[in-house]
Design a protein that fits this description.
By secondary structure, the protein is an alpha/beta fold. The chain is built from 9 helices and 37 strands. Homotrimer.
């Protein structure tokens, strides 16, 4: 097969979104819609990707970064004019060129690959990706000749009654022979009410040059959905979320209720993992095999190993090793590393904390800027006092140590190996290995003192 190139149009303002954010940067399943398009092309090993920018150009460049080429359309004079801005980068190339849109994020690599294969099989100058709709109102119709080739594309407002009965519509997505594309674009005129240069005119131009133009119908018309407003954005989100869930389920993941589970595009999940309802898996989260995630687990950029259980918990930019449990009602903040066989229980918060193998923090504790060794028990209500108002300090609890309930570890401080901290202690000095640290006031009992205290409901003499 020939080399592949692509032009992605992303210069439009998108006023119907009614947003300060450029239209193509609105996220669908956690990723800007134009990023979906570019990622699909990258996965297809497209040789040259040219993104045509205009409104919000700097923001689009900042989001997509390096590795692709940008062409600037300073004035929006139509789709053909937008494509022409990519000419300096592709004019002398051989091969097939896709013309795509940054606001059509649902096209799969499978559909584009099939489009390209058909285009090259037919040895066409241009191939239009079409869709067959039950209600094609408002869309340009595909008019074919007796041989089935595309004769022309007629807009709805210009279509006759017979043409309006056609249900095959133009999606605006094309494959072109690269050299023939640029030759055709030179012939496009702006002799219309809007004074713009339309890409659809290339079809009739190529036909007049006795070139072959064909149509390829998308198997799933919903893939060709363009996004122009918030309603369509929600429709695209629902479609892609369902497609993502189906992909995971077909790969051996159990999703109890896909309708109430939110999995973003770049999440990976191992086989025999169960995703419970109400869970959000975001960013580049990776989950191993044989895990139970949820109910109501919210994970963002988290690496989860095999056989992990996470329920009613929020985790971000953290890692959880094999055979560990997190939750319910735990909060694991960035920089935290939970080792194998660890228990992080209810109402525990971790921040930038490393928890060693087999350690337990069962409930009601804050462990921040800390390094907890292997086999450590952190009692209920323990706090690492890490912040002095200006600087964060580190707490170290070494292997085998036991920290009693309601203890304060005032950092910087180290609790040695196999040491004990008595319940209710405030530790501000290092505890040696194998030592018992008690740091609390001695209890004093004042006999009969309670009888002299005023009490509600008690008659005073």
């Amino acid at each position: 097969m020939s080399k592949i190139h692509a032009v992605v149009l992303a210069a439009g303002q998108g006023t119907r979104m009614k947003s300060k954010l450029h239209k193509v940067l609105h996220p669908v399943c956690g990723k800007p819609m134009v990023q979906h398009v570019v990622d699909t092309l990258v996965a297809m090993q497209v040789e040259d990707i040219v993104v045509v920018v205009g409104h919000g150009a700097d923001a689009v460049r900042a989001e997509l970064g390096d590795g692709i080429t940008y062409a600037l359309q300073e004035k929006q004079l139509g789709t053909a004019h937008a494509v022409q801005q990519a000419e300096p980068f592709l004019l002398d190339k051989e091969g097939t060129t896709f013309l795509l849109y940054g606001d059509v994020p649902l096209l799969s690599a499978q559909t584009l690959t099939a489009l390209r294969a058909y285009h090259e099989e037919q040895q066409a100058a241009a191939t239009v990706l079409t869709a067959v709709l039950n209600d094609p109102t408002g869309y340009g119709r595909i008019v074919r000749d007796s041989a089935g080739e595309v004769l022309r594309i007629v807009e709805h407002k210009d279509a006759s009654l017979q043409e309006r009965a056609i249900k095959e519509i133009n999606t605006g997505i094309y494959c072109f022979d690269n050299r023939k594309l640029w030759n055709a674009l030179k012939e496009v005129k702006n002799e219309n009410a809007q004074g713009e240069y339309y890409l659809t005119d290339c079809v009739s131009i190529l036909r007049n040059q006795h070139e072959k133009v064909v149509g390829f119908a998308a198997a799933d018309p919903d893939e060709t959905m363009g996004i122009n407003d918030r309603v369509q954005l929600a429709d695209a989100e629902a479609y892609l979320r369902r497609r993502i869930a189906l992909g995971h389920m077909r790969n051996g993941v159990t999703i109890i209720d896909p309708a109430s589970t939110y999995i973003e595009a770049d999440v990976t999940i191992g086989a025999d993992t169960i995703i419970q309802p109400g869970s959000f898996l975001r960013g580049r989260t990776t989950i191993g095999s044989d895990c139970v995630i949820g109910p109501q687990a919210d994970l963002t950029d988290v690496q989860v190993a095999d056989q992990v259980s996470i329920a009613y918990a929020v985790l971000a930019e953290a890692s959880v090793a094999a055979n560990s449990t997190v939750g319910p009602f735990a909060y694991v903040r960035p920089g935290s590393e939970i080792g194998p066989g660890v228990k992080i229980g209810d109402f525990v918060e971790l921040k930038n904390a490393k928890i060693g193998e087999g350690s337990k923090i069962p409930h009601l504790s804050y462990v921040g800027d800390a390094e907890i060794g292997k086999g450590v028990n952190i009692g209920c209500g323990t706090i690492t006092v890490n912040y002095d108002g200006a600087v964060k300090h580190k707490t170290v609890v070494q292997d085998g140590a036991f920290v009693g309930c309601n203890s304060n570890l005032v950092a910087p401080v180290t609790v040695g190996k196999n040491a004990y901290v008595a319940a209710g202690s405030t530790i501000n000095k290092d505890v040696p290995d194998d030592a018992l640290a008690i740091a609390r006031e001695r209890q004093v009992n004042k006999l009969d003192y309670a009888n002299r205290m005023p009490r509600k409901g008690k008659k005073q003499s």
